[in-house]
Amino acid sequence: MPVETLREVELAYRYADLGEVRLHYVEAGEGPLVLLLHGFPQFWYEWRHQVPALVEAGFRVVAPDMRGYYLSDKQPGVRAYRVELLARDVERLILARGERTAEVVGHDWGDIVVRITAMRYPGRVGTLAILNGPHPARFLEELLSPMQLLRSSYTFFFYIPWLPEGVIRDGDFALLRKPGELRALLQRVEAPLLVIWGERNRFLSQRLAEPSHL
């Protein structure tokens, strides 16, 4: 089965009512549950190449749009998007799909949500796979270095009022079409963890893949 296309996979487009929010997700395959969490500013379609491969490997794949993204509920106010609420969404989604645990994969912002889910709900996460995502404590350590501070400087752009929204809307959202809690940070993830790191990452140093000293 070619991994470059979704056409060979029977996708189900569904919604899960989690109480506070309703999340849209796609589901495919049969077998042990694998949950895929996208990064910013993507949505479930980020995993279009991985879904067929995981289905072929014998997994049931669920790839949601996290709250605030694409077809999932958007809520007003920043506090509605606290990471502990996003982690609770993941825990509830696993249960909503009729499972007690799931193998969970996260990329970018999804990586943070995956780790916090494993810390807060250790019984729900069987194994974790992280794509180019450092442990939050390790990131804080490395951020003290001038080079990583420079690499991460783009994030400060999103703190400027109104400007980020204007830039993203420019050209009919052309930018989005281009390819491509302190206590919680100090907790350990007890589940088995696989970290996959791309050597050509322009924004995160490879040193971030190393274990935290905290």
How would you describe what is shown here?
The protein is α/β, with parallel strands linked by helices and 214 residues long. The protein has a domain at 12-134 and 191-198: Alpha/Beta hydrolase fold, catalytic domain (Rossmann fold, 3-Layer(aba) Sandwich). Helices cover 29% and strands 19% of the residues. The protein is built from seven helices and seven strands. A seven-stranded mixed β-sheet has the order 1-2-4-3-5-6-7, with helices on both faces. The radius of gyration is 17 Å and the shape is globular. 29% of the residues are buried. Mean pLDDT is 77; it is low at 148-160 and 179-185.
Helix and strand composition category: alpha/beta
- Counting copies of identical and different chains, the oligomeric state is single chain
Globally, the shape reads: globular
Beta-strand portion reads 15-25%
Please trace the helix and strand order, writing H or E for each element: EEEHEHEHEHHHHE
CATH architecture of the domain at 12-134 and 191-198: 3-Layer(aba) Sandwich
Give the integer mean of the pLDDT values.
77
Number of strands: 7
